[in-house]
Every structure is written in structure tokens, then in C-alpha cells.
Automatic annotation (TrEMBL):
The chain crosses the membrane at residues 12-31, 43-62, 74-101, 121-144. The keyword Ion transport does not apply. SUPFAM superfamilies: ATPase domain of HSP90 chaperone/DNA topoisomerase II/histidine kinase. It comes from the Bacteria. Residues 171-249 form the Signal transduction histidine kinase internal region domain. This is Histidine kinase.
Amino acid sequence: MAFFPKQQRFWLYHAAGVGVVFLFQLVAFLMRGDFVEMNVTAAFIWLPLFTLAVLVFRTLYARYNGANMGMGKLIPIALIYGLVSGLTITTLIFLALLPFFGDEMFNPETLANIGISETEMLVSFFVGNTFIQMLYMSGWTFIYTSTVASRRAKQSELDNLRLQNNLRESQLSNLANQLNPHFLFNSLNNIRFVIHENPNHADAMVTALSEILRYSLASTSKPKVTLEEELGFIERYISIVKLQLEDRLRFNLNVSSQLKHCLVPPMILQLLIENAVKHGMENLPSGGDLDVTVAELSCKLSGKLSIVVTNPIPVSKANADGTGTGLKNIQHRLQLLYGSNASIKLEPSATHFTVHLILPIEKNDESTHY
């Protein structure tokens, strides 16, 4: 650390502090009326000496890691340094004044008028000024160490928050990256079916898949996207799934247009729908209705977004919990993004499986399209 601080704030605060003390001394000297010229000269000599002393303390404080010392150790050190520096400053001021004001200081007539001897004059000068300088230095060190401790605490808190944020982003990225291989595998399987069964639709399906992959890759860099963007992605995804399932899939979407700017985690609806298709629709020869409802909850849960996905399931899977990799992924992402402010509830029945997702309503005035 440099001996002379480069931070402008340090010098501003220091100048303000010593300026107040300097003015206080001048007023006190003028009010006393004796040794005015000598005391004013001493005040001007005091300014650089005190500044040098505080810079020495600052350097020693940094070199010996004073910020990590306990108050029980730091307070005695500050008092001892205040005493030593106070005595040193007083001695240097005395030596600087002696050639010019020695006769005035030790003038017998002046001392007689005051009623003290030369020895008493010396003792009074050194003891009084050393004590005052010790108070000044102790006050400065207290303010300085308190400021450093406060800044370190704030910086530590900021670093901790930054570390937690980086960890959260890393975890979210890992979870988002888990989506792509499974989703891509299913989509390529769908294309394989279409190529063999309906070649005319293969080109449209490849185009839709490319748009889906572009959205998937772009959205993983963001923790949240608008519901409008997510629904656009869902439409392309459903178009691919319908090419495979054809009339077996009847997709019903019920969403209020007022909610289109609400923010949701990217691909979260896709995961819910993919889970419904994989564990329900694909195993039903006659297919069924896949219902998605997005609404704002009322009453005491106002300010919450409700997403409900319901699909029929085969009788053989009526008792299955449905918590595959996709739903577990959603649970982890909700915990990272919202903590206890979001929830996912699974509601299986004899013939249907329902997933109820509740998120805080967060709106974005401007939609960012991919």
C-alpha cells in the first residue's frame, strides 16, 4: 500500500477534520490572548506533523493487518501510538519554536506575570500538548479504523452476494443445459417418424426444430423470459409433437392476454408439456386432451401466477408419481430463482395427472424476442 493515499476521499475527509481542529485552535489562542503569535505558528507547524503521523499509523495498520485485530488488542495499540506520536509532535514543535520564541517562552517577567517557573513552563507545555495530541490522534485512529472495518464488512457482504449469485447462475445454467439433450433426442425421434410416415411434413418439422433449438440455446443465458415468448416456443413444440401423434393430441391453451408480459423461467412450460406427452399421451392409443391454463390467482394469493397442466394417463400409471427428471429439474430451478415464493404441486388421479405451478407475478414492459 502506498504511503500517500491516492483516494481523493481520504484527503477530503482528513482535510475537513484537521481544518476544524485548526480553526478551533486559532479561536482558542485568540481568546486566551497570551503567546498568540507563537501558538498560531505552532498550529501551522502542527498541520504537516499530524498528517505525517496519521499516514504512519495508516501504513502500520495495513502492514500488520490491523483490520483483523480484535478491539481488545487494537485499543491499547492506538493509545500507545497516540502517546508516542503526541510526544514526538510536541517535541518537534517545541524545537521548531525555540529559536524564534525561546526568549518569549522563558522571559522571567512573562513567567512571573503568569506565576510559573521555567520548569513548570516546560512541564506544562509538554504534558498539556502531548495529552491534546494524544486525544487528536486517538480520535483520528478511532474514526479511521471504524471506517475501514465498515468498508470491509460491506465489501465482504458484497463479495458474498456476488459469489452466491455466480453460484446460482452456474446451477441454473447446469439445470438448463440438462434440458437440451433429452429434448433434442425426442425431437429427432419425432422427425424420424415423420420422414418415414409423412415426408411432406419433414421440411416444416426441421424448420420448427431449428427455431426451437435457437430459442433453447438463447434462453439458457437468461433466468427468465416473458410468457409470450414461452408460449410462442410452445406452439412450435406442439406442432412437432402433433406431427407424430396427429389427432391423438388435442392441445387446449387458456391464457389471458393481460399476462403475456409476465416473466417465467425459460422452457418451464415445455418441460411440463413434455412430461405430459411422455408419461400420458404417448401411452394412450386414443390420445386425449392436454389442457394448459395460465391465470392470476385471486383472494389472499393475489400477485401469484397459476400454471396448470392436465393430461390423461393410462390406468397402469395411475399410481405413478410422475416426478421424472423434468419435474425435478423444475423444482430445483424454482428454488434457485424464487426460494419459498414459488411452488409446484403434483395432483395425480385415477385417470388424469395435473401439475399446478405457482410463481410470483413479475412483469416486463418490453419483450425481448429471440
